[in-house]
Amino acid sequence: MKTLAELAEYVDEAARTATEIPQISDTHPLSVEDAYAVQALSMQRRYARGEKRIGIKMGLTSRAKMIQVGVSDVTWGRLTDAMREEEGGVVSMSRFVHPRVEPEIAFLMKKPLSGKVSALEAMSAVEAVAPALEIIDSRYKAFKFDVGDVIADNSSSSGFVVGTWHSPEIDISNLGMVLSINGRPQEIGSSAAILGNPVRSLVSAARMVASAGEELKPGDIVLAGGATAAIPMEAGQSVLLEVENLGQIGFNIG
Ligand code: OOG
Ligand code: MG
């Protein structure tokens, strides 16, 4: 039997070296609680290497995403400064195993938030909202995992790009979202696909971080989750997301 610390080292090394690994559940099926413990321990290894926690990401908050990966529990993971990519920049394939990109909405926090909160309370803690692209890169072979695997692997977090911040007065409940590759629309959806309204994802985020004894802090970024299925990334592609009323963001893949 491996300890949770050994499993944390296993997933952390896979992420650090962009190496694909067999699923933990093949040999060590994890409860959700133990999987979050592995995630927390693996993040401590990153922080010890100098990475800074700058927010969190919610995962599997839309049906499209749940269907794509065959896991139907909402999960969360931690974002670090090393994962942030520049809007309009070139993202290198070299630090990933088999990355995918997905359209999201980001929140920027201005007040601490944690525990059981209403949508109104959650929004009053928000400084700004923005369009975002998340790059997910499951470290598991063939992008296959169960709920314990994906939680242990920090909910596949590996990169993200955030666009221009806008006033949280903008109604984000049902904004059209178009994700294009090389100028061709590939996924078309709405922010309403994210739990019916991305604000609900923020409400869940507050509850989930509290259960880990943490809180959302002023300055934190919260990614609400993919509104559509994710698209496999390939070198040479240009990625563009247009979100109604929030503008567009993109990057090139090198
Ligand atoms: C799990 C992470 C899901 C989202 O936005 O739903 C996620 C995965 O699909 O690998 O980031
Ligand atoms: Mg995501």
Automatic annotation (TrEMBL):
UniProt keyword annotations, A-Z: Lyase
Molecular function GO terms recorded: 2-oxopent-4-enoate hydratase activity
Keyword Lipid biosynthesis: no
GO cellular component, one term: cytoplasm
Domain named Fumarylacetoacetase-like C-terminal: residues: 82-249
UniProt-listed SUPFAM superfamilies: FAH (SSF56529)
Coiled coil start-end: none
Highest taxon listed in the record's lineage: Bacteria
Cytoplasm recorded as keyword: no
Name assigned to this protein: 4-oxalocrotonate decarboxylase
Species of the source: Celeribacter ethanolicus
